[in-house]
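User: Could you go from structure to sequence for me? I need the amino acid at each position, not a summary. Structure tokens:
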């Protein structure tokens, strides 16, 4: 049985999905991540110590927009918008502006087409979120 997305994660995904409409500098077909069922571990960092992981499952369709798929998480500090998006074939990097919080930067880096790590770093606080994703299997149904 799969775990549903937490409301905080779902809200962050919606915010970044809306900001992902900005023009991209690369063709979606050249992004080096495999479609399928991804297990995503999100850890919030407090005082330099990573907390227990929140586990999220996400089915990635072939040709999916990398910004909406792999950059759909933010620090849990409220409404955020992404700017200065930079994309390469194996990485995404962007700046975050969050209401009531210091500016932040975020990134995800793929070491293979089936695995990535990333983080969010806020000015004055350091790293506040860590993320790790691993492709688990093929998607088997629309409910994946």
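Assistant: Here is the amino acid at each position, in order:
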């Amino acid at each position: 049985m799969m775990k549903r997305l937490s409301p905080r994660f779902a809200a962050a995904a919606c915010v970044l999905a809306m900001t992902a409409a900005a023009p991209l500098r690369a063709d979606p077909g050249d992004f080096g991540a495999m479609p399928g069922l991804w297990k995503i571990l999100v850890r919030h960092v407090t005082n330099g110590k990573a907390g227990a992981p929140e586990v999220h499952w996400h089915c990635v369709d072939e040709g999916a927009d990398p910004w909406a798929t792999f950059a759909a998480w933010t620090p849990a500090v409220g409404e955020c918008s992404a700017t200065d998006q930079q994309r390469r074939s194996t990485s995404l990097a962007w700046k975050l502006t969050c209401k009531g919080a210091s500016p932040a930067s975020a990134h995800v880096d793929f070491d293979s087409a089936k695995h990535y790590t990333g983080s969010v770093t806020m000015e004055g606080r350091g790293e506040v979120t860590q993320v790790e994703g691993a492709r688990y299997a093929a998607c088997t149904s629309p409910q994946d």
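One structural detail worth keeping in mind: The chain has one domain: 7-137.
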